[in-house]
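Review session, final week

We close the course with one last complete record, chosen because it touches almost every idea we covered. It is Protein NRT1/ PTR FAMILY 7.3, a protein from Camellia lanceoleosa with 113 residues. Go through it on your own first, then we will talk.
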Amino acid sequence: MYVGQLEFLNEQAPDGLKSFGSALCMTSISLGNYISSLLVSIVMKISTKDKMPGWIPGNLNRGHLDMFYFLLAALTTADLVVYIVCAKWYKYGKFEGMNGGSNNGNKGSDSSV
């Protein structure tokens, strides 16, 4: 997923903003890791009540990982809906490179060679 995101940002960004796109990609990876840790902490705090082990205990046989994975499936479904809305709203932008050609890698190539 991150390779596709980086390729998309490099293709759709103007020449002066390509490094910003790479930085944005790396920032989204790090924020995703922090949010994942926060999600596990919140689930453990909410699901651990009255000396019950919670959804993700130290001994996984006593927990309810199935409930945690159902929560992840629901969050992924919501994320898919947001992605589809954004993908329908997005308009493909084609930028020209510094030589006046498009960014498809065929800058002045001669096919008769």
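Two points worth writing down before the exam:
DSSP finds three helices and no strands in the chain.
The two ends are 37 Å apart (CA to CA).
Good luck, everyone.
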